């Protein structure tokens, strides 16, 4: 493919994405929370900040509830695959827990990024020790968020079962005092948007010092040249596969990809903003919501990108006769070229023990309320062709590096 053909393909694919985005129907035009609700929560949080943290005495049945939730959380916190499925199941039990579905789809991305490190592209661009550090940072963030958030979801489930508010038990799970007024508000009025945005804020603040500012990850991951050119490595693309609406009965369309790119993982404000935008894309755009819901129902998570694009990726490593040739051209594998190797998580990485986190509450003042500001549902969300171009860029980088090897 010559330069003019590449330019034509890029223009054509960009136009296709733009046309698709213009045709979809928005469920939400913006993600905006009621001012009076925010003021009520803010007032309660102001009171919480003035209180001294002291463990409350638990009744025998409360101790049993706590022990059961901790046991379930520990069991399901085995690896990315078990966490991702846990989020999926609790969302389908309680569709009002929007964050659980968002977490499920984002967690799928975590698994894909983990297995990318063992595919047949990134290992050519990263040193073996860098691959391990990248995986450890992904796994740590994934595990810590689950360890903090999943007990909250289970406590809601138990509250529903017992038909009473049990959120006074949140401190027993070391959950930030930031979340108790939010859960109380959700219990009273079921404002899913408020709860979801609050959980986005809480979980990103929870991992800021524990992962994003961790000296080991700072040195070996975030400050490396490769991470600074992360768009090349696709390690921070977040995509939601979704089945587009069927235009012809009986057809089985290939999933499109909705999502965006995170430029700087260490930037707390950016991560929260990205989280809110992803929420608005997933729940605010009807085609994406319905198509991603169908994808989550029909396609089990294995960690392999072949889960959503088996025509581009394979869970089996083929004998590569095209190692020295470009195989992805104009968004399509060349005739005779094998798909890119994308292993299942269980075949790529062993389960890692989850080390206890440092115990401290990130919530120390009310400045966090700036993160509740409304956002518009993104007009640009289709990543299908951008992802393919990015994949081709990585492939070309590998070919270039192999070509200049001494």
Set down the secondary structure blueprint:
Layout (H helix, E strand, L loop, with lengths): L2 H21 L6 E2 L3 H16 L9 H17 L3 H14 L4 H19 L11 H35 L16 H11 L2 H21 L2 H8 L2 H4 L1 H4 L3 E6 L13 E6 L6 H17 L1 H13 L14 E2 L13 E2 L2 E2 L6 E2 L3 H4 L26 E2 L7 H20 L3
Protein name: DUF2515 domain-containing protein
InterPro entries: DUF2515
Short description:
This protein is mainly alpha-helical and 406 residues long. The chain has helices at 3-23, 35-50, 60-76, 80-93, 98-116, 128-162, 179-189, 192-212, 215-222, 225-228, 230-233, 268-284, 286-298, 345-348, 384-403; strands at residues 30-31, 237-242, 256-261, 313-314, 328-329, 332-333, 340-341, 375-376. The protein has a two-stranded antiparallel ribbon with strand order 1-8. A two-stranded antiparallel ribbon has the order 2-3. The protein has a two-stranded parallel ribbon with strand order 4-7.
